[in-house]
Amino acid sequence: MSSLQERQAPIDAKIVNAMIESTPENWSQIVLTLRRDSESSALGAFSHELSSPEGHPPVGPADSLYEATYELDQLLQAMGGGVFKKAVYVAKSIGKNWSFEANFDYAQAL
Question: For the sheet containing 29-36, what is the strand order?
């Protein structure tokens, strides 16, 4: 059986690609914040907020972002923990490549 990290990596890539798809081309930094009501553990039951530290107005997520975050939630819950909050920070680097960092706060330990 694969580790959580091995199974999560391709889903993280889908999330980052969907974040890029959801935002205008002139954004060089994107912050995705997922928030779940602390009393809910239903799959996909969290809000999506896309913002930019550069001061651009927030935008709505593409459908592909909802699909990718649902897939992530399904994996994490199958591994024993529900996501309470997730923030993914993405910055454009030289050559139009993207790098990202993800931070998670869990409702319960994995």
Answer: 46-51, 29-36, 83-92, 98-106
